[in-house]
């Protein structure tokens, strides 16, 4: 694929990264001031933090709002196949000329000073959002919350905190309380917040900060709840009960994400029609996604081919729970992971659900875990493992040995992105 103008600018921007990574909002405030504070002129913001389910919840909220005829901007990360996925203007991926122009303007405003890739691209998103009218802006936190580059909105319309678990400990802290404190940093004075199901320690941290800020909370299992009953999703809160279809996105964890999205829509004044659209119309790639075309599918032959980008212990548990609900079938993993992740913690929930794991490298990822280390981690928790040079070779070998099985490519959003680029 030929390099686009935005690709060239993005490549230059990576060179501006500070020599020491420090979570701080100073660089964001500096570049936003140089740009004339576009963050103060963007449409009403729904700010979403949490460890798991942020993207799926955002996708469901967006589907619900758009079903009501509302125009919605959205900012998410990381991207899978192309950077443009991170910025949606009124529901559509940003066009290449608009992205290149915004990045160039931000590069000029920054004047070569140190800034992280996420910070300067977030500034570019704010810039384009400020210039295109819309009804809402959905902002997904990149890392943590308190010092995340998105946390420069003084008065969002609504905050959302999805379930919190242990992840990114090198930046957010070692304990649940420390990590929850970072996530709760998105709360703003008197701004309502929807809170997904939480560990008791995390919930207490969120409640304490909200009380200090007089921020009204709508808490899962207390003010609203969602559950599966047969082939239906049941949502209820103090305004009543809704009987809805199961989410289009697979897995029992999507029942929680759907409930969080519906609670957010209810807080914004929407009802059953928008709630139904949220669960049946939302799409979010690389979350137990069935692949149906491309060279990998051809290599899989008569095998089912699935893709998931989960990469932490909660992600592994979500896949395991989803496999439990799927038709019984021998399941084999093709797995590539980063060396910054809890590899054994991710694999442990999967051990009783899969027959084997084939470890592969993640192309073009500096932090890729060597396949030998991935295989050793799998063997250490009882999953028979081997190594393949790449995903295509792994799938081809499994299809030849185990026709009609289920093959799941998993372990990293970076690996998922590579698969989607080649098989989209």
Automatic annotation (TrEMBL):
Residues 48-264 form the Mur ligase central domain. Its EC number is 6.3.2.12, 6.3.2.17. PROSITE patterns: FOLYLPOLYGLU_SYNT_2. It comes from the Bacteria. One of its GO terms (biological process) is folic acid biosynthetic process. Keywords: ATP-binding, Folate biosynthesis, Ligase, Magnesium, Metal-binding, Nucleotide-binding. GO terms for molecular function: ATP binding; dihydrofolate synthase activity; metal ion binding; tetrahydrofolylpolyglutamate synthase activity. It catalyses: (6R)-5,10-methylenetetrahydrofolyl-(gamma-L-Glu)(n) + L-glutamate + ATP = (6R)-5,10-methylenetetrahydrofolyl-(gamma-L-Glu)(n+1) + ADP + phosphate + H(+); 10-formyltetrahydrofolyl-(gamma-L-Glu)(n) + L-glutamate + ATP = 10-formyltetrahydrofolyl-(gamma-L-Glu)(n+1) + ADP + phosphate + H(+); (6S)-5,6,7,8-tetrahydrofolyl-(gamma-L-Glu)(n) + L-glutamate + ATP = (6S)-5,6,7,8-tetrahydrofolyl-(gamma-L-Glu)(n+1) + ADP + phosphate + H(+); 7,8-dihydropteroate + L-glutamate + ATP = 7,8-dihydrofolate + ADP + phosphate + H(+). Pathway: Cofactor biosynthesis; tetrahydrofolate biosynthesis; 7,8-dihydrofolate from 2-amino-4-hydroxy-6-hydroxymethyl-7,8-dihydropteridine diphosphate and 4-aminobenzoate: step 2/2; Cofactor biosynthesis; tetrahydrofolylpolyglutamate biosynthesis. The keyword Cytoplasm does not apply. Residues 297-412 form the Mur ligase C-terminal domain. Its cofactor is Mg(2+). GO terms for cellular component: cytoplasm. Belongs to the folylpolyglutamate synthase family. Functions in two distinct reactions of the de novo folate biosynthetic pathway. Catalyzes the addition of a glutamate residue to dihydropteroate (7,8-dihydropteroate or H2Pte) to form dihydrofolate (7,8-dihydrofolate monoglutamate or H2Pte-Glu). Also catalyzes successive additions of L-glutamate to tetrahydrofolate or 10-formyltetrahydrofolate or 5,10-methylenetetrahydrofolate, leading to folylpolyglutamate derivatives. This is Dihydrofolate synthase/folylpolyglutamate synthase. The lineage of its organism: Bacteria, Pseudomonadati, Pseudomonadota, Alphaproteobacteria, Rhodobacterales.
């Amino acid at each position: 694929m030929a390099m686009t103008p935005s690709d060239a600018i993005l490549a230059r921007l990576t060179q501006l990264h500070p020599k020491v990574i420090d979570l701080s909002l100073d660089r964001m405030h500096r570049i936003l001031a140089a740009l004339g504070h576009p963050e103060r002129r963007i449409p009403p913001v729904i700010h979403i933090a949490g460890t798991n389910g942020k993207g799926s919840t955002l996708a469901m909220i967006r589907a619900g709002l758009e079903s009501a005829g509302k125009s919605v901007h959205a900012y998410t990360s990381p991207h899978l196949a192309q950077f443009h996925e991170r910025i949606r203007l009124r529901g559509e991926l940003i066009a290449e000329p608009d992205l290149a122009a915004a990045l160039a303007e931000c590069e000029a405003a920054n004047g070569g000073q140190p800034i992280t890739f996420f910070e300067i691209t977030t500034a570019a998103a704010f810039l384009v959002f400020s210039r295109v009218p819309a009804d809402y802006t959905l902002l997904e936190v990149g890392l943590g919350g308190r010092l995340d580059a998105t946390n420069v909105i003084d008065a969002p319309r609504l905050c959302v905190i999805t379930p919190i678990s242990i992840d990114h400990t090198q930046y957010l802290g070692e304990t649940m309380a420390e990590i929850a404190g970072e996530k709760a940093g998105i709360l703003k004075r008197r701004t309502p917040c929807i809170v997904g199901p939480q560990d008791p320690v995390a919930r207490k941290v969120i409640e304490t900060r909200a009380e200090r800020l007089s921020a009204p909370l709508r808490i899962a299992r207390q003010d609203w709840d969602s559950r599966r009953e047969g082939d239906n999703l049941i949502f209820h809160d103090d305004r009543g009960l809704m009987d809805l279809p199961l989410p289009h996105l697979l897995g029992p964890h999507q029942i929680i994400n759907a409930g969080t999205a519906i609670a957010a829509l209810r807080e914004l004044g929407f009802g059953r029609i928008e709630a139904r659209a949220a669960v049946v119309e939302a799409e979010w790639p690389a979350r137990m996604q069935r692949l149906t075309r491309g060279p990998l599918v051809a290599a899989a032959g008569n095998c089912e081919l699935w893709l998931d980008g989960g990469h932490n212990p909660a992600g592994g548990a979500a896949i395991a729970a989803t496999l439990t609900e799927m038709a019984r079938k021998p399941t084999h993993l093709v797995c590539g992971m980063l060396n910054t992740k809890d590899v054994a913690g991710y694999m442990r929930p999967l051990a009783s659900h899969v027959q084997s794991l084939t470890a592969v490298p993640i192309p073009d990822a500096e932090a890729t875990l060597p396949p030998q280390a991935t295989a050793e981690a799998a063997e250490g928790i009882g999953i028979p493992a081997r190594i393949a040079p790449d995903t295509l070779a792994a799938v081809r070998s499994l299809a030849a040995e185990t026709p009609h099985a289920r093959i799941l490519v998993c372990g990293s959003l970076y690996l998922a992105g590579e698969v989607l680029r080649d098989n989209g």
